[in-house]
Amino acid sequence: MKRIFELPIHLLCCILFIGCSKTPTTESERLEKAAAQGDAAAQFSIGASLGGQASGDNKQKEAASWFQKSAAQGNVQAQVALGAMYREGRGVEKDISKAIECYQKAAENGYPEAQIRLGSMYQYGADIPEDAAKAAAWYQKAAEQGDTEAVIRLGDIFGKDEAAPKKRDQAILVYQKAADLGDAEAQMRLAASYAEGRGVPKDAYKAFEWYLKAAEQGLVTAQFAVAVMYASASGVREDKAKAFEWYQKSAAQGKPAAQNNLGLLYANGTGIPKDAAKALVWFQKSAAQGNAEGQNNLGLFHAGGIGIPKDDAAATEWFKKSAMQGNSDAQSNLAHLYADGAGILKDEVRAYAWFNLAAAKGKKEAATQRDALEKQMTAEQKTQAQSLSAELVAKMPKR
Length: 399
Prior knowledge:
Layout: H1 9-16, H2 27-36, H3 40-50, H4 57-72, H5 76-88, H6 96-108, H7 112-124, H8 132-143, H9 148-158, H10 165-180, H11 184-196, H12 204-216, H13 220-232, H14 240-252, H15 256-268, H16 276-288, H17 292-304, H18 312-323, H19 328-340, H20 348-360, H21 364-374, H22 379-395
């Protein structure tokens, strides 16, 4: 059969193998090609995809390698990322001087994140000598670029108790600036300044105003403050329903003090119907997070069989946890258990020691119980009890 036409062999190959010179088809392939060709942004992106905290050692090393290539070309994000790896010893040998060098390069190129990281290291003396002046200088550079975190940190330095009055005035100015821009942390700090009279005249009404703004943005500490102010009629008219509402919001976000206070509202029926079961749930949540008041209240529920079967042993354990944090109510409650032998062996020495600690914090009833107990004790027991008091205080966290 006669061929109608015949294509040149090279043209036929092109038709049959079109795309034989492979072009990148995925974002990952495009990044790899660009990175291999020296694109600093692509090199940073690949490093960032490999270098997460949970990545294995090999991936961390590979990430560091890409960050080094990108950083060498002046990519500020890579410089910061590489600085963090040097500081933490991820993918590279830990080297604080190299970490600072990386941060410094990015900071000098005007990158706010690097300026804040350097400022933080100087502010808290983290890996380098503490230097508030250098910290403030770096925060100032970031703040001038509109970075609200830097503004707040700058205010924190200016607003320290030992700062000169002029500096405290500056703190208020920077907090006000960020607060007016809607930054919740700045609003919170401005509220606290008015509440405590730091840098401004004490003003509960203005404190409430700014706490409320921060609370409405979901800041858990501000929500708690608003609840407390509604409950205590500070800066706002007393409103138990609103106090309950804001305690709920703060407690739902996990604030232990709010969980404890919410438990108290349910336990006492303050503004809501009494509900021992719900009170117990919130005391348990608060106590589990180490809140001393929540632990004491949970101990009381166990001791009294409120919403739960009576359990003196469990009560003892929760009172101990709270008492060792310095809670005077728990110290007195624990002393009573030792004095009565409820759930534990009767121990007059330990009872005296705990009554003594509670009395030292102004608990008059504890002082009365201690003095009554002392009349039944020998001189040796009293000496032991006083020594035990000192030992317990030494074991307690310093406030």
